[in-house]
Design brief:
- With 244 residues, this protein is of the alpha/beta class.
- 47% of the residues lie in helices and 21% in strands.
- The protein is built from eight helices and nine strands.
- Strands 1, 2, 3, 4, 5, 6 and 9 form a seven-stranded mixed beta sheet that branches. Strands 7-8 form a two-stranded antiparallel sheet.
- Strand 5, helix 4 and strand 6 form a beta-alpha-beta unit.
- The longest helix is centred in the C-terminal third of the chain and has 27 residues.
Length: 244
């Protein structure tokens, strides 16, 4: 009877994980030698805002990601977070909300840019404690673009300018790049045809101070294990000092 219950529980757990991967691109990685529980967050396609995108589009929905992140922060069984990014950008406010949420989580977190981390994907990439990019991945850094009809009044321009400042300030404060350097990359008018901005490929993003390191999944996971070990050792040391 006990064995049957165990089998039933295992199947149920596997079904849950398969559903999470299919619906949200998330899973708990726990097969490592440390037996740490790593929550995987997958940010792909376009960041969807308050309006639903076409059903054929690959999207990341903030109303799904934010509860995941809150659950991770509240769950003592989760030791760290790995964020995989391959995004073309999307809704600015929704993307920035996800980035702010990731940044505020107390668990160790590492991001890895695969394919691309464009537009609002830039602050998402730097929101982790340590950011990685594979050599072939690109990051397109450009100013805010507005879709649809925009009324050309002073208040709208001021709003866009403040939103742009929020993105610059967040990105600079969560990476090694200076605000002025970021602005020069963002408003570069010599690289993109019929547009302004810059394309940074792999090592270039690291050399500019936007991303921390070049590497793949192996490097990102090793770094995350180190961050978790450091945090656990720090807690042990504090406990021992308190006992003394």
């Amino acid at each position: 009877m006990n064995n049957a219950n165990k089998v039933e529980n295992k199947v149920s757990k596997d079904d849950v994980y398969n559903g999470l991967i299919k619906d949200y691109g998330q899973i708990i990685l726990s097969g490592n030698k440390f037996h740490y529980n790593i929550h995987l967050i997958n940010i792909i396609g376009e960041i969807e805002g308050h309006e639903s995108l076409d059903s054929s589009s690959k999207v990341t929905r903030y109303e799904q990601i934010l509860p995941q992140l809150a659950s991770v922060e509240d769950n003592d069984d989760i030791d760290g977070i790995l964020i995989l990014l391959n995004t073309i950008g999307g809704d600015v406010e929704s993307g920035l909300a996800i980035a702010e949420m990731i940044s505020s989580i107390s668990k160790p977190k590492v991001s890895l840019v695969l394919g691309g981390g464009h537009s609002i994907g830039v602050p998402l990439a730097v929101s982790a404690d340590v950011s990685y990019i594979v050599p072939s991945a690109t990051m397109v850094v450009h100013p805010i673009r507005m879709n649809g009809t925009v009324l050309g009044v002073k208040q709208n321009y001021e709003y866009i300018e403040k939103m742009q400042d929020r993105i610059i300030e967040f990105t600079a404060s969560n990476s090694s790049i200076k605000c002025e350097e970021l602005k020069s990359i963002m408003f570069n008018n010599k690289e993109l045809t019929k547009d302004i901005g810059s394309v940074l490929v792999g090592r270039q993003a690291v050399d500019k101070g936007l991303i921390d390191r070049v590497g793949g999944i192996n490097s990102a996971l090793k770094c995350l294990y180190d961050l978790i070990n450091d945090k656990k050792n720090s807690k042990i040391n504090l406990y021992e000092q308190f006992q003394e």
